[in-house]
Amino acid sequence: MLRTPSGGAGHHGTAATDGLMSIGTVLNVLRDEFPEVTISKIRFLESEGLVEPRRTPSGYRKFSADDVERLGYVLRMQRDHYLPLKVIREHLDAMERGEAVPLPAVGRQREGETLLEAPEGPTVARIGRDELMAAAGIGEQQLAEWESYGLVVPMPDGTYDAEAATVASLVVELGRFGIEPRHLRAMKGAAEREAGLVDQVVAPLKRHRNPQTRAHAEARTKELAALTVKLHAALVQTALGVRLP
Fold it and tell me: Is CATH 2.60.40 what the domain over 106-179 is classified as, yes or no?
């Protein structure tokens, strides 16, 4: 069994069942800790060699409790430490060999080779341009094209919000089906409109004089974001007349 250095989804996988799980069951288990995880994300991590579920004779994926624990570790390292998949894979390989794996500090931002505390307020993790291209497996020309469509947007200092790595991996995955970056502008616009609606709801909380109320705005934003993501997914499935497993 994978020995992860931090708690989380690993124990969910063991508690779910002693047998093998379908990808839909795995999704439900992981969503306890990772509300925004999708089946596409799980399949992408599999395609990157980060998990290797068994296959039935008919081709269906079957995940063990160890597979779910491994997926939880990967998602946690992306969320909490903003590590690219290549580094996460190296960590997993090292742990399988029984080696101790040091982790970067949580809540810091990367600037060159130095980890710096943000001057004030909550810190925001960032990744460099080269790191983003390496994580997505793309070149300078592709990244420039994505920027032109607003799919990823650099910070004033040239770095990117860590979530850009997730966006990049999904753009790559969609590209395998012939969906080009220019086709994704509509999705970008829809996401911005949804974000604008959430901002309208939480704006009064953000402006409140009470610090505790302002702090509550962040939790409310996350809650609303999770709900809008679920609604968006349900509406797309309804429009296509399909149901994800």
Answer: no
CA distance 67 to 51: 6
> What is the reported pLDDT for 117?
33
Report residues of the chain scoring pLDDT below 70.
1-18, 101-125, 244-245
Whether 154 contacts 160, CB under 8 Å:
yes
The pairs formed by 44-47 with CB atoms below 8 angstroms and a separation of 24 or more are 44/169, 44/170, 44/173, 45/71, 45/74, 45/85, 47/173
C-alpha distances out from residue 57 to 60, 62, 123, 124, Å: 8, 11, 48, 45
Exposure of 242 by Cβ count < 10 A (0-12 exposed, 13-18 middle, 19+ buried)? exposed
- Tell me how far apart the alpha carbons of residues 42 and 19 are, in angstroms, rounded to a whole number: 19
| Positive/negative CA dihedral, 27, 107, 104, 109 | positive
**How far from 173 is each of 11, 59, 241, CA to CA, in Å?**
29, 20, 22
CA contacts within 13 A on the Cβ side of 242? 6
Q: Which CATH number fits domain 9-96: 1.10.1660.10, 3.30.43.10, 3.30.420.40, 1.10.287.3510?
A: 1.10.1660.10
* Tokens, residue 219: 């939790």
d(CA 105, CA 47): 28
Q: Rounded to a whole number, what is the largest CA-CA distance in the chain?
A: 61
pTM for this structure? Answer: 0.47
pLDDT of residue 2: 58
